[in-house]
TrEMBL record:
Pathway: One-carbon metabolism; tetrahydrofolate interconversion
Keyword match Magnesium: no
HAMAP family in UniProt: THF_DHG_CYH
Transmembrane segments: none
Name assigned to this protein: Bifunctional protein FolD
Length: 282
């Protein structure tokens, strides 16, 4: 069996999370997650709905605040300030991307780092890179859980992360490094990418180009993690990895859908729960 079933693992973790949440509620704390969505990005609508469904299933208090595409940066910052002060919300997530007239950097800086369940605030990114993470970006955190669940050895292995975003590639590299992998980050300017990729025991692909990674990129027996979420010409969801070609070569591979995506949401829920739990003694 070469498939890493992210959906099944997410469902399994959801059952355990519900029990943990019930126990926390009995102590008087209900985890609260608020999601802010600006504009009508159709992909964002799907993700935000999935998040809300998983949050309510877990027994959280959850709300989606939908703002029009025309919302000013000033109004959004004022809303974040208000959510920062509101003790019913343990986690605040502002869905990215934001409309072009709003600075993502300013918005992420405005979120209280203690409520930044995405782990995107520079304080949280710095804590991760210095080896004392508090809030971890949920996509790479979910990938680490999948690697552990499927018994993948990380220490001493060669890992290649393709993609250098702040939300996936960079934190992924740090998490693998922390577990003693030998890590390389590749990107669109990397020369001889297929040859570089072919050295990797663990290959994480987050480049945002459908079917980009083909059989010639993959070392036989490699573990292949596909973070891609692309639509093909028929509107079908496809990953960054050409699954049918790579699956016979890999020892383990994540599908799209049903791999990284569901675990991203699961880790967001776990992190919101942990954040709520930290308020107990306060
Ligand atoms: N502040 C912020 N935090 C995020 O974590 C964040 C974000 N902005 N913006 C967009 C990306 C993307 N993202 C996904 C979440 C769930 C699925 C997911 O559930 N995927 C399912 C299917 C989805 C479908 O059918 O379209 C799957 O892969 O099986 C995918 C992608 C979170 N993101
Ligand atoms: Mg995330």
């Amino acid at each position: 069996m070469t498939l890493i079933d992210g959906k099944a693992l997410a469902d399994k973790m959801a059952i355990a999370l519900k029990d943990k949440v019930d126990a926390l509620k009995a102590k008087g704390v209900t985890p609260g997650l608020v999601v802010v969505l600006v504009g009508e990005n159709p992909a964002s609508q799907v993700y935000v709905r999935n998040k809300e469904r998983r949050a309510l299933t877990a027994g959280f208090k959850s709300e989606i605040i939908r703002l029009s595409e025309e919302t000013s940066e000033k109004d959004l910052l004022a809303l974040i300030d208000q959510l920062n002060q509101d003790s019913q919300w343990h986690g605040i997530l502002v869905q990215l991307p934001l409309p072009a007239h709003i600075s993502e950097e300013k918005v992420l800086l405005a979120i209280d780092p203690e409520k930044d369940v995405d782990g995107f605030h520079p304080t949280n990114m710095g804590l991760l890179w210095s080896g004392s993470p508090v809030m971890m970006p949920s996509t790479p955190a979910g990938i680490m859980v999948m690697l552990d669940e499927y018994g993948v050895d990380i220490a001493g292995k060669t890992a290649l992360v393709i993609g250098r975003s702040n939300i996936v590639g960079k934190p992924m590299a740090q998490m693998l490094l922390d577990r003693h992998a030998t890590v390389t980050i590749a990107h669109s300017r990397t020369k001889n990418l297929a040859e570089v990729a072919k050295q990797a025991d663990i290959l994480v692909v987050a480049i945002g180009m459908g079917n980009f990674v083909t059989a010639d990129f993959v070392k036989p027996g490699a573990v292949v993690i596909d973070v891609g979420m692309n639509r093909d010409e028929n509107g079908k969801l496809i990953g960054d990895v050409k699954f049918d070609e790579v699956e016979p070569i890999a020892s383990l591979i994540t599908p799209v859908p049903g791999g990284v995506g569901p675990m991203t949401i699961t880790m967001l829920m776990e992190q919101t729960y942990e954040t709520a739990k930290r308020t107990l003694g306060k």
